[in-house]
Write a structure and sequence with these properties.
This protein is an alpha/beta fold and 327 residues long. It contains twelve helices and six strands. It starts with a helix and ends in an 11-residue tail after the last helix. Pathway: Protein modification.
Length: 327
């Protein structure tokens, strides 16, 4: 084989390799990108992307569609207590969009797990999860393109409302029916009816002031602790901070965690118990020693737990000047 032929063969092979390389590296056209996303979304409303797909479909140009990306860490080793719940709410929004009458290829939902794309977290400068970001059809995401879950939570309805604000696409969330509340009500009514039937000849307990007082207090504690706010906003149960600790109290006066409402209810109950003990001490006339014990314990409960409640309020309402016993 002559040297000239070898050179020609070598150049031809290099040309073929170069053509294949260019073809592999060729950017997908807009129509190809949209078609690929549409096909994938028809099978699974929430698309899971690694670094390469994120670069190609979310940040690739040109684009005529928006993407809502949830950055999360679902692996058990990451110990993200709220990531699974947030992922379920995110999937609920994506499914509602996929099966809505206004569905189009102008909006896609994407999930990026830290273990599948740590480089993506570095690109967008994230060091915590979950985070919801909107990548618009044109330009780069702005600060308002990140959902403030500290303020509004991550309930599916809140995510859909935020998506509408950023994309002008309205999504009606179709939440699967939850019969647990109805079942609990039926069981409660059955118990009440059964109790009334068993004691039909003696209904004096219906006129017991203590029973009605405890029921009224329980309802009051539930309402004043923020249970209705939880029902409307759907906040997380608790949150893991950036340094790995668990936050039980929300740092803003505009938000709260579910566990925080339980804490507030227990603090209010302790203050009320102290007031009841002091009232009992004032009414008892026979045993001076017992009156003194009731008064001291009651005063201690009121002073300490009211101070603790005020301290929590100070931590949430920055700049509040007043405190009592505890800072």
């Amino acid at each position: 084989m002559s040297s000239t032929f070898r050179r020609i063969l070598f150049i031809f092979i290099c040309f073929i390799v170069a053509c294949n390389y260019v073809q592999c590296k060729r950017e997908m056209s807009l129509s190809e990108r949209v078609q690929s996303l549409t096909d994938a979304a028809s099978k699974k409303p929430v698309l899971r992307f690694n670094g390469e797909k994120f670069k190609q479909f979310v940040k690739g140009t040109p684009r005529n569609y928006s993407t809502i990306v949830m950055f999360t860490a679902l692996a058990a080793s990451r110990q993200c207590g709220i990531c699974r719940h947030a992922s379920d709410e995110f999937a609920l929004v994506a499914n509602s969009w996929r099966y809505s009458q206004g569905y189009s290829n102008k909006l896609f939902f994407v999930l990026v797990d830290f273990d599948e794309g740590p480089d993506i977290f570095q690109q967008v400068r994230l060091n915590s999860a979950p985070v919801f970001m909107h990548f618009p059809a044109k330009g780069k995401p702005k600060k308002i393109d990140t959902l403030d879950i500290q303020r509004v939570g991550f309930a599916a309805e809140n995510i859909a409302r935020w998506v509408a604000e950023r994309t002008d696409i309205q999504i009606r969330v179709f939440r699967p029916p939850n019969y647990s509340g109805l079942l609990a009500l039926v069981v409660l009514l059955a118990l009440v009816v059964g109790l009334l039937y068993l004691r039909k000849n003696n209904l004096d307990f219906m006129y017991n002031k203590t029973t009605w007082a405890l029921a009224a207090l329980a309802f009051t504690f539930a309402m004043t602790s923020g249970q209705m706010w939880n029902r409307i906003r759907g906040p997380p149960f608790l949150q893991k901070t950036q340094n790995g600790n668990i936050a039980y109290i929300h740092t803003s006066s505009q938000g709260q965690f579910i566990v925080e409402t339980y804490i507030v209810a227990m603090l209010n109950a302790a203050v009320v118990l102290g007031m009841i003990l002091m009232t009992e001490a004032a009414q008892k006339r026979d045993d001076v020693r017992k009156r003194r014990i009731y008064a001291i314990i009651g005063l201690g409960l009121v002073a300490f737990f009211f101070s603790l409640s005020l301290s929590i309020f100070r931590s949430k309402a920055q700049g509040y000047p007043y405190s009592f016993l505890l800072k």
